[in-house]
Amino acid sequence: PAAAKEAGARLADPSAAISVLWLRRSLTFTVCLMENLMAAGDDAYGADASIASEGGGESMTALLSKDTVLDALNDAYESLRPYHGWLAQKSFGLFVGAAPRYDDVLAMVGPGLGDADRNAVVRADMGVYTETGRALIAALEDLYCELGLEDIRKV
Question: Rounded mean pLDDT of the chain?
Answer without folding.
Answer: 84
